[in-house]
Amino acid sequence: MPKHSAKQTTRFLSAALKQAGIFDIVISPGSRNAPLIIELTNRQALTNYSIVDERVAGFFALGLSQQSQKPSVLVCTSGSALLNFYPAIAEAFYSHIPLIVISADRPQKWIDQGEGQTIRQHNVFKNHSWYNVTLSETVEEADKDKIKTAIETAIDKRGPVHINMPFDEPLYDIVEVPDETIPKIQTDFSAKIYEVPFLETFEQKWQQAGRKMILVGQHQPSEFLSLQLKKLAEDPSVIILTENISNVYNDRFINHIDQVIFPLDASELQDLKPDILMTI
Predict the structure, then answer these.
(1) At a CB cut-off of 8 Å and minimum separation 6, what does 279 contact?
(2) Structural domains for the chain
(3) How many CB atoms lie within 10 A of CB 211?
(4) pLDDT at residue 115 above 80?
C-alpha cells in the first residue's frame, strides 16, 4: 500500500498532477507545507527540486515551464514566503507561461490574530493570475473539482494559477492508503477556437495603411511565427522590429531597435511614424 500524507487534499493534488502529466515540482521547504512535501516527494512519477529561496524557486520553475511548454508546480509554506513568488508570477502572466502555485496556509481562524507566518493568502495574486482558490479546511469532494479547474486553467490560459491549501496540526502524519481518483482533466486545448470580433475592421485598416510597423515582443521559438513574419516582411510597406527575446530571426527584421532610433531627431522620428502599429 503506498504511503501518503494524512492530509487528503494533498492526495487529491498529487493524483491530479499525475493524471495531467505534470511532473516538475519546485519546493521551497517549510513547516506548514510539510504535508505537501511528504505527499509530493513520495510520488515516484514526480520530479522534485528543493530550492530554499522562494524568489529563486519561482524563476527556476518559470524556466522549467518555458522549456517543457507544460505547467510546473511551485510549493511554499505559509506567510510572507508566498509573496517572494510574485516576480515570477507576474513574469509568467505577461509572458503566457503556465505555472501552478501551491501555498500552504494556516486555518482561517488564525488569520489576523498575530500568529507568526500568517498573512491573508486568499486571492493574493488576483491581479496577475487566471484562477485563485482556497481549498476547504474540512475535506470536501468539491476540492477535486477546484484542483481540476486550476490545472485546466493554467494549461488553457497559459499562465499562472494559485491553489491555497490550509492545514491544521498535525502536519507530519503519514498513512498507507490507495491513491486517490480525480475527475478527468482536459489537457489538450489545441482545437479551441477564439473569436476575434475586430479582425475584419483591423484587416481593412491594415490594407489601407501606407506604412505598417510590427513590434514583436517575447515569444517561444516558433517556426510558424517566423514564417508568417517573413512573409509580411516581403511587403515593402511593412517594417518589423524584434528584440533578443522575440526568438524570431530574419535579415529583413530590425533587431537592434535602440541603435536604429537613438540617432534620429524629432522630425526624422515623425517621418518614420507608421500609419498602423501591430504588437505581437
Answers:
(1) 214, 215, 216, 217
(2) 3-176 (3.40.50.970), 199-279 (no CATH)
(3) 14
(4) no
pTM: 0.82
Q: Could you count the other beta carbons within 10 Å of the beta carbon of residue 25?
A: 25
Q: Which of these, 20, 116, 145, 14, lies nearest to 75 by C-alpha position? A: 14
Determine the average pLDDT of the residues in 236-255: 92
Q: Report the distance separating Cα 62 and Cα 72, nearest Å.
A: 7
Q: Do the Cβ atoms of 154 and 98 come closer than 8 Å?
A: yes
**Rounded Cα gap, residues 84 and 44, in angstroms:** 28
Query: Of the candidates 26, 23, 82, which has an alpha carbon nearest to the alpha carbon of residue 59?
Result: 26
Residue linked to cell 506567510: 79
pLDDT of residue 138: 82
Q: Alpha-carbon distance 72 to 87, whole Å? A: 16
Taking only the tens place, the pLDDT of each residue in 69-80 is 899 999 999 989
